[in-house]
Amino acid sequence: MDRFNAMRVFTRIVELGGFAKAADSLQLPRASVTILIKQLEAHLGVQLLQRTTRQVSPTLDGAAYYQRCVSLLADLEETEAVFSTSRRNPRGTLRIDMPAGIGRFIVIPALPEFTARYPQIDLEIGLNDRPVDLIREGVDCVLRGGLALDESLVARPLAMMDQVTCASPDYLLRIGVPNNLDELAGHQVVEYFSSASGKRYGLEFLIGNDIRLVDLPKQVAVNSADGYLAACVAGYGLVQTPYYHARRELQAGTLVEVLPALLPPPLPLTALYPPHRQLSQRVRVFVDWLVELCARPGSGLTR
């Protein structure tokens, strides 16, 4: 039995919650995964996994063993990188997740540069706005807008994204163009809400060093960035969104900037990854490239 391979299989089963998912993720036959776990449990003399008809979860011994495996495998990967060409030419699969807009407008258009620089890294990219459980879903790194709230993850700041307040021409023709905060009375917003936390977001304006919240009624609320912008284009009210996300609509005239002298606060963009991935050369070169990309003039994150 290859114990390190068995550890990799075991950790992936814990992270994905099933033998079949782990086998598919590692591109191994499902029978091989089952045999490896049986051999590992026999070698250790303990039961590592509790199997039910619906899910697979670690036992108490399995949970403790998982933590040690994660640490050992991270140390092994870094040690191999130090003494091999993989430090200069990292290889393997890198699983990343990011908001759809960041992927479509910022990262993926520039990605050929990264893959040309690191041709032996294969990328699996998830594009969505929902929170991702990095450990359970086997994701190496995520990009997120807003404050990084999970203190168990390593956070690498990437940029402060400009935001813009906007509305459709049809909406402004019907309701009027506000020239100051007082004139927002009588207007409405498209409300964005988090499907995970239930938190709802209205309008915020940066007045000096203070943030002024403006509470307006809404007719439509959505939980995706694309839907949020689409509802604005459809005339359901004012929105505040990162500039990169609305840039094409603003240039095309399907959206109009409102209150340009009163800006929303900038939105942090952060790369997050589990502590055990901190030494991964694949994660390191990707995050370093993101820092480089976001710092360039014309990145699209600022005006």
UniProtKB/TrEMBL annotation:
InterPro entries: LysR-type_TF_proteobact-type, LysR_HTH_N, LysR_subst-bd, WH-like_DNA-bd_sf, WH_DNA-bd_sf. Keywords: DNA-binding, Transcription, Transcription regulation. SUPFAM superfamilies: Periplasmic binding protein-like II, Winged helix' DNA-binding domain. CDD domains: PBP2_CrgA_like_3. Residues 1-59 form the HTH lysR-type domain. GO terms for molecular function: DNA-binding transcription factor activity; sequence-specific DNA binding. GO terms for biological process: DNA-templated transcription. It comes from the Bacteria. Belongs to the LysR transcriptional regulatory family. This is LysR family transcriptional regulator. It comes from Pseudomonas spelaei.
